[in-house]
Amino acid sequence: MAKSRLPAFLQDHPGLGTLGNVEMPRLKLLQASSPELAQFENARPGEFWHSLLDKSIGSTVRICPVFINWCFILWRPREAGGGILARSDDGKHWTPADTEFTIKLKSGEEVTWRTGRSVAASGLGKRGSYNPNDPESPPAATRLYSIVCSFPDHQNWPPAVVTLQRTGVKAATKLIDQLKILRAPSFGVILEMSSVKDESPAGEFNNYAFELYGPVEDKPFYEENSRQYRFFIEHGLKVKDLESAQDD
Fold first, then answer.
1. CB atoms inside a 10 Å sphere around CB 11
2. CB 29, CB 43: distance < 8 Å
3. What count of other Cβ atoms lies within 10 Å of the Cβ of residue 188?
4. What percent of the residues of the chain are helix, what percent strand, and what percent coil, each to the nearest 5?
5. I need a labelling partner for 146 at 20 to 30 A (CA). Which of 159, 186, 215, 228 fits?
6. Mean pLDDT in the chain?
């Protein structure tokens, strides 16, 4: 069926109703080292990039946090090739469990990470576990927050996932605390998400900032957000190309 033959009201929301087992695209905050800068002329550091639309949507965008969850990711260090060694989607149990990984750190030291029976038993989420010989080293496992976003000002855009970890965790936990005190469900709240400059020992980078904007007043849009929320509660969230999040 050609798009030109569709009624206008059907063309407004392409793809909705087809979540199925599709992995959700990502909404990335581009850094100076992001590969998109070399691949696309319109990609700019400090702007948000929709990975399915392959387009920048600027440094500030209004979103609705349809669904929020978090997990633990055990990343292989970048200098050792990168990638996901293990993950805990429920924050309690590793997949794979009871598995041992020998890791060569950037310093040249070889260490062993064991997933054990559970995240708590493994200790990989605790400070000092990255290098067991250095109690001040960071946790080996990374807490990663995923926020499914819909777009109140661009309801024809497909929803996308913002992933926050490491330096982004503070912004994620602050946002969750703010949402908890509201009487509305998260998918009924509009946020303004902005790119802000931040600093770390490695230098300047772009980070996330969230500001409450107001409630959703468009009932059909709210009902679609609610439908998506129920889907993720029932089926879980799959993020497309999650391994690329290691370089965020």
1. 11
2. no
3. 19
4. 25, 35, 40
5. 215
6. 89
- Cβ partners under 8 Å of residue 206, min gap 6: 29, 30, 31, 45, 46, 195, 196, 197, 198
Per-residue buried b or exposed e for 21-54, using 16+ beta carbons within 10 Å of the residue's own CB = eeebbbbbbbbeebebeeeeeebbbbbbbbbbee
Residue 238 and residue 24 in contact, taking contact as beta carbons nearer than 8 Å: yes
CA triple 109-166-203, angle to 5 deg: 80
What pLDDT score was predicted for residue 80?
Answer: 85
Whole-angstrom distance, CA of residue 123 vs CA of residue 137: 13
pLDDT digits (tens, 9 = 90+) for 189-214: 999 999 999 887 778 999 999 999 99
- Residue 29: predicted pLDDT: 96
Give the residue from 193, 195, 194, 188 showing the smallest Cα distance to 214.
188
Task: Using CB atoms within 10 Å of the CB of residue 202, give its burial: 0 to 12 exposed, 13 to 18 middle, 19+ buried.
Answer: exposed
Instruction: Name the DSSP class of 239.
Output: B
Report DSSP letters for 149-199, one per residue: EE-TT-TTSPPEEEEEEGGGHHHHHHHHHHHHTSSS-GGGEEEEEEEEEEE
Distance CA 109, CA 214 (A): 51
